Amino acid sequence: SNFLFIEFGCGKGRVVLLAAGFPFKRIIGVEVMPELIRVANENLKTYRGKRRCNEVEIVLMDVSEFPIPAEPAVFYIADAFGEEVMRKLLENMRRSLAAAPRESYLVFYDLNEPGRRDPLDKSGFLASVKQTPLYAIYKAS
What we know:
The relative contact order is 0.17. Helices cover about 30% and strands about 30% of the residues. The longest helix is centred in the middle third of the chain and has 17 residues, at about 85-100. The chain has helices at about 15-20, 35-45, 85-100, 120; strands spanning about 5-10, 25-30, 55-60, 75-80, 105-110, 125-130, 135-140. The protein is globular. By secondary structure, the chain is an alpha/beta fold. The protein has a seven-stranded mixed β-sheet with strand order 3-2-1-4-5-7-6.
C-alpha cells in the first residue's frame, strides 16, 4: 500500500485494471497513442472487477519523458519499446532514483526475443531478482 504502480505503455489498460485489484497507493498508466488512451479510460469507467486501489490515472505522454514521482514504485513494462525509447526510459528511471533513493522494482514482461533484456541487465542500477522465460523482476539499487 506504500507503493505506486506505473505501467509504461499501458495500451488499453488491461494491466492497470489488474493492478487495481492490489492495494497499491496509486496506479498510473502511461501511453503515447490517444486512441489507446480513450479505450483505456473507457475500460477504467466500465470495469467491474475487484478494486483495492481506486486512485488510477491514465496519462497521455511519451514514456521516456514521463516525470517519475519520487515514491517507492513498481514499474511494469511489457516488451513494447524499441531500443532508443527503452534506453531513454531507463535513464529517466536512473536519474529519478539517484535524486531520491527509494525502494523500487521493475517487472519486465518478455516476449521472448533474444537480447530484449540486455538494456535492463546492463543498466547499472537494476539488480535481477528473478528471471523466467516470460518475465524478469529487477530491484533498483
